[in-house]
Design goal:
Keywords: Kelch repeat, Repeat. Pfam families: F-box, Kelch_1. With 471 residues, the chain is mostly beta strands. The strands form eight sheets. A four-stranded mixed β-sheet has the order 1-4-3-2, covered by helices on one side. A four-stranded antiparallel β-sheet has the order 7-6-5-30, with no helix packed on it. A four-stranded antiparallel β-sheet has the order 8-9-12-13, with no helix packed on it. Strand 14 and strand 15 form a beta hairpin. The chain starts with 6 loop residues before the first strand and ends with a strand.
């Protein structure tokens, strides 16, 4: 309870009926309950018993205690007096509304309403709105220690759901790198999350997947500014059986949701998000037969629809969304005698077309789109970043140093704004800051790298996919 100097009290003698006998105290016996209930006015008995209406005042914490009263009695009384105290409660801007009901010694019901003004600030000396803005910037890693400071801190930092919901309400929009990884010995999959402001690692709940999934076959896509992550398809480990699984993770809720299955189970397929819709194409079916089918998911409606066939059966090596189109490449295949195939899907016309020769032959790594241009991080270590020139159907090397030596393959690559994030083995992360300048009516790009070393606890993990979300 707040200090008494901050309290304001109002006592209402709501109902009093003289009686010649002292009422017995109710100890959950039916006669006592009947006696009490019989002396409550008719209008109280008719009151709606739904206590949830009291939650209209979201700033109040309601604490109810009843002495010698059954729950069914004070539930009705509370609603009956609510209208009377409503104006006073608002005027006091109270955060703690305690309703204590008890028997008087002379046979009447006394309702004591305690209205306590904010007795304990979030941070002493600061207005609560300023203090809240500060606390919502705390690294998630420090929440366990911070929530023991006081009750109000515990309410704010007690769960990630509450924390990220409040951040969303106040318009926070910071980047977080979600890395889907697996243990190099056991193959166990997990999600690790890097706070890109504080460079601290956190975890999220395990995916609700009953099968042991091969970490390479599934595909992950994100809607960064909505804070949503989707995991589609995949393959059951040691069986080569594709999955039609679709899972959604919402950052502000900190939980997974199982969504409607894909029309066709597939693994090692292309995926991308265009105008809020999720597209998947190609991949492997049962017995590793390649597919030519494609489909699209509207996350708002929650169901999949087929789209035009690719026209060629093809598994995906890599895919990207560029200029509102889905680009799919199968990559180079040993022994490299045949040029890799590539397809481009235009959702406006629902048609596929062949990819330009220079684009598909030079696509030799994991791609990202920055400044509306396609960049590729080569699958070979210590190679420089390169960018595609659509005008000449050629690739150019980006100025700057190669990928830092701490970043070892297999890589996982993603981007946000003008930054490229490359996650290597042991979850070391290289952040590439891409700069551009115009020279002779043509854009020139350069990159500089910064390495974020992962803690020793993550040294046995290998990345499979990475996505950037904002929250």
């Amino acid at each position: 309870m707040p200090a008494r100097k901050h309290e304001h009290y109002t006592r209402l003698q709501y109902y009093k009926q003289p009686t010649n006998r002292t009422p017995r105290r109710a100890h959950h016996d039916q006669p006592a309950l009947s006696f009490i209930y019989g002396r409550i006015p008719i209008q109280l008995r008719a009151a709606n018993s739904n206590l949830s209406k009291l939650l209209l005042f979201q700033n109040f914490r309601l604490v109810f205690s009843a002495r010698s009263l059954a729950f069914s009695v004070w539930r009705s009384i509370t609603l009956s007096i609510f209208a009377q105290v409503k104006k006073e409660v608002k005027a006091l801007c109270a955060w703690h509304l305690a309703l204590k009901l008890y028997f008087g010694q002379k046979g009447f019901i006394v309702i004591r309403i305690e209205l306590a003004i904010n007795g304990q600030p979030l941070i002493p000396g600061l207005p609560d709105d300023v203090a809240l803005n500060c606390l919502l910037r705390l690294p998630v890693q420090s929440h366990a220690a911070c929530r023991s400071v006081c009750k109000r801190w515990h309410q704010l930092l007690g769960s990630k759901e509450q924390f990220f919901t409040r951040r969303k309400e106040l318009g926070f929009h910071d980047p977080w790198l979600f890395v889907f990884a697996f243990h190099k010995c056991t193959g166990k999959i997990q999600w690790q999350v890097l706070d890109l402001n504080h460079f601290t690692w956190n975890t999220i709940p395990l995916m609700p997947c009953k099968d042991k999934v091969c970490p390479h076959g599934l595909r992950c896509v994100a809607m960064p500014h909505e804070g949503m992550l989707f995991v589609c398809g995949g393959m059951v480990s040691d069986v080569d059986c594709p999955l039609d699984l679709v899972l959604k993770f919402e950052m502000h809720k900190n939980r997974w949701t199982v969504m409607n299955q894909m029309i066709t189970a597939r693994s090692f397929f292309a995926s991308g998000v265009i105008n809020g819709l999720i597209y998947v194409a190609g991949g492997n079916s049962t017995d590793l037969f390649e597919l030519d089918s494609a489909e699209v998911l509207d996350p708002m409606k929650g169901y999949w629809c087929p789209i035009a066939s690719m026209g060629t059966n093809m598994a995906s090596y890599d895919a990207a969304v560029l200029d509102g189109k889905l680009l799919v490449t199968e990559g180079w295949l040993w022994p490299f005698f045949v040029s890799p195939r590539g397809q481009v899907y235009d959702p406006h016309t629902n048609n596929w077309e062949n990819m330009a020769v220079g684009l598909r032959e030079g696509w030799t790594g994991s791609s990202v789109v920055v400044y509306g241009h396609l960049f590729v991080v080569s699958e070979h270590e210590r190679m420089k970043l390169k960018v595609y020139d659509g005008e000449f159907d050629s690739w150019e090397t980006v100025e700057g140093p190669p990928l830092p030596e701490q970043i070892c393959k297999p890589f996982s690559v993603n981007s946000s704004d003008c930054r490229i994030y490359v996650v290597g083995r042991n979850l070391h992360v290289a952040v590439g800051y891409v700069l551009r300048k115009q020279h002779a009516k043509k854009w020139r790009f350069s990159v500089r790298w910064h390495v974020i070393d992962a803690p020793e606890a993550l040294s046995d993990l290998t990345p499979s996919s990475s996505q950037v979300l904002f929250a």
